[in-house]
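Chapter review: from sequence to fold.
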Amino acid sequence: MEYCETIFQTVRWKTREVRVGSLSVGGDAPIRIQSMTTSDTRDAPKTIDQIIRLADAGCEIVRVTVQGKKEAESCEAIKNGLLVKGYTIPIVADIHFYPPAAMHVAQFVDKVRINPGNFVDRRASFKVIEYTESLYALELEKIEEGFSPLVQLCKRLKKAIRIGANHGSLSDRIMNRYGDTPRGMVESALEYARVCRKHDFHDLIFSMKSSNPALMIQAYRLLAAEMRKLGWNYPLHLGVTEAGEGEDGRLKSSIGIGALLLDGLGDTIRVSLTEDPWAEIDPCKRLVRWADQMRNRGIDPFEERGRSIEEISPRKVFFSDNSPLHRNGSVILKVNPNECTIDTPDSPPVHIPVSKVPLSSPYALLSHGEEIPPGRKPEFILFQPTHSPVHETRRFIDRLKMEGNEIPVILAFTYNCEAEDLPIHVGAEMGACLTDRLAEGVCILSNLPSEALCRLSYNLLQAARMRMIKTDFISCPSCGRTLFDLQEVSRRIREKTAHLPGVKIAIMGCIVNGPGEMADADFGYVGSRPDKIDLYVGKTCVEKNIDFSEADERLIELIKAHDKWVEPDLTSREIYEPQV
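The token string follows.
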């Protein structure tokens, strides 16, 4: 794989150093922690208070939304107010749709984040448009004309630029040529990077964000591979956007960020939660500590072939009616330190001792380097690595692939960590394996109560898109553009709709990323103006300017009209409620 120096040992890819205010990002600098304010940027005192609280919590770089010139002008007061109070934390201006705001704010902030999907392009219409080569070339000329002034200004002022591609806001040009894909995200960013390089500007940082951790991982890996081919080494800002709240949000973020940190990628991170901004800092710190612990851990080199679950014959993973295995990751193991319980929707639980699996049983418990006993044909393998879980799993699956062995694998990883660290470590390690489709099930070995491990296991399989057992919520973390109380609305909608397995609901505070991020959702609830909500089915707006007081019930009516509604099963409520 080309996206990192080695997949057999966690060695951080050394990128070029980019200065963001008083800090270095990339190079030999530590992984930096970021967050974003949720206040109205025009309210300088409130924004200053939020930034101070973030800095005191350990945030190292903070982003503020800048919709127009009033917000840009407020950034001068924000920067000066922080300096008076003794805070030098770098400030990043978040720009969408309005290049003049970027030109104005660049003199006050330390970095400008632009979205290549909408900085020069209009909002995507999601229509099929035929782009000839000449028409496409004209579009690229428009990008250069519209983006070059900002590049030249930032070069003169020695300010950094983040080219932040979002899966949910790609331009029509990109989607029609490359599709709504990781390749499209990468090409969208490279179009703007080429303009920067044409002006000999290199204070660049990239990001490739999506609400789907697996897609986000693919996009960053592809970008790193492309940069290697081009001889580039710009720093990477990692994040899963619209991750949600509670345990779900921490799992989704840890899967995407953790998998890439294991690849040696990533120079600065943000865990985007639908919670107060300072709540994002603790999981960031835990991810950075975990990454530091994993550095230089790994195993001897091997030729990784990988194994796609889709390649496995259904007969191999879909046994008789009494079997504890079902197709494509629908296995859940509830665990205490001495016993596993395999639990599936339509078969009775099967108990397996963790410490010793009898040779007469249909299961094999293997650790690093162990072989299946001759003559044994277990129905599945519990794989329990001992040193470097992800690297050992990759080599073990590679061995199975080389042998043509299609026995399903359940990952049995052991965790002796704080309760707050568990979703971070599980997401980063097991999630990395699941999103790469290296296993069919999970077995979390920990001293935590079995109920908590059961919930965490279900949530992990859902976050990795292996098994949908509840509603999948895509909710943004809020910012100065948000038109309603996202935390309160998310809590309310979750309480009413969290019992709909496989249904994806997007709750978006504004329309900047709303329609695009809802490409991966069944239904969308989007703030369109103060006290007004638009409702979507997929990318299509089906109801506009609904009064805020009526929007929840109208969303439920819309779900029922599309035959996606079922009555809640109150006995399973503990699975649906978010846990921190």
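Two observations follow directly from the output. The chain has a mean pLDDT of 83. The chain is about 35% helix and 20% strand.
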